[in-house]
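User: I'm putting together a teaching handout on how sequence relates to shape, and I'd like one worked example. Could you take N-acetylglucosamine-6-phosphate deacetylase from Streptomyces tendae, show the sequence you're using, and then write out its predicted structure as tokens right after it?

Assistant: Happy to. First the sequence, then the structure tokens directly below it.
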Amino acid sequence: MAPTKVLTGARVVLPTGTVDGGSVTVEGTRIAATAPGPTTTAGTSDTAGTVDLRGHWLVPGFVDLHNHGGGGASFAGGDAEDVLQGVRTHRLHGTTTLVASAVTGDLDFLARHAGMLAELAQQGDIAGIHFEGPFISPCRKGAHDESLLRDPDPAEVRKLIDAAHGHARMMTLATELPGGLDSVRLLVEHGVIAAVGHTDATYEQTLAAVDAGATVATHLFNAMPPLGHRAPGPITALLEDERVTVELINDGTHLHPAALQLAFHHAGRERVAFITDAMDAAGFGDGRYMLGPLEVEVADGVARLVEGNSIAGSTLTLDRAFRRAVTVDKLPVEDVVAAISANPARLLGLDDRIGSLEPGKDADLVVLDDAFALVGVMRRGEWVVAPQLA
């Protein structure tokens, strides 16, 4: 029988609210029980030990829908070991479930790369594949190679879906382009999330995409027209529609705090998902990197294209996003947990296994100190970062 771990005394964030002095019991890879107070293990011969987490927070493991790499390694163009290096880096920062995001590239290359990522998804190393490009607008290309962009032809969309062997989770499209709405319908038919992003769509065109089945806004506010009083654009459409979950990059560079507050106010905590949009430099450091075929300079933790100076993803990790949301943005901890764990888990259709601390779910959890700095990470019952407590 697998040893039992009892984590006790923490402020535990459960789906029903925060419990002071609560406990979580882990047996093997799963959560066996949660309790509003200390759990006794008397008579349990296989107990590996009780971890006293008084003065700490215990929250679900983080779930990242949109991530291009980390630890000096790329998900967008690296080999399997590169991907695993990036995954390991983000696990050290609390991300226990991660979707690997590709960037715009040659269609045949993307299909081959998707095959490799699909093998890692089959092994459980990643939770699936997100295709960000090539079916995006040249007007809002951001850090994507304009020469490789193309209209979203449903036949080509289907080629990438097939190449992912059932592990395509999401595709970002500029749905106003020719073939955009048909591609959204195709994605929905195959159980793939259609995300509106890198788009120059009008308000009306965005509503048409949502009516066709799009359910995610790729990094809301970024790589789309700004909100205008006569031309409300995609931001308004995506914020106001209850069918849409909005991604937010909470690194202090991509969004002004007021924009983040606006999103939470209008979408509510049930429709926000924090993402990193991380590239290779996340958890690694400043320097020069490649994002797909484009060269990126990272200085003071901000990634920009060498040519053009566009922001090129982020160096964010989700533990930093969590801490900033609570300490700078002053969001309730429960709202942050929803945005960083529960909501993305639900979008991925994995909320029966991850995203909250409940009996029967995977023992994926994060320990934070009273200043919301990460001190422990458990994934499937094993410590990735074991808490070093005084």
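A couple of points you could highlight for students: The chain is about 25% helix and 30% strand. The chain has two domains: 4-59+356-385, 62-347.
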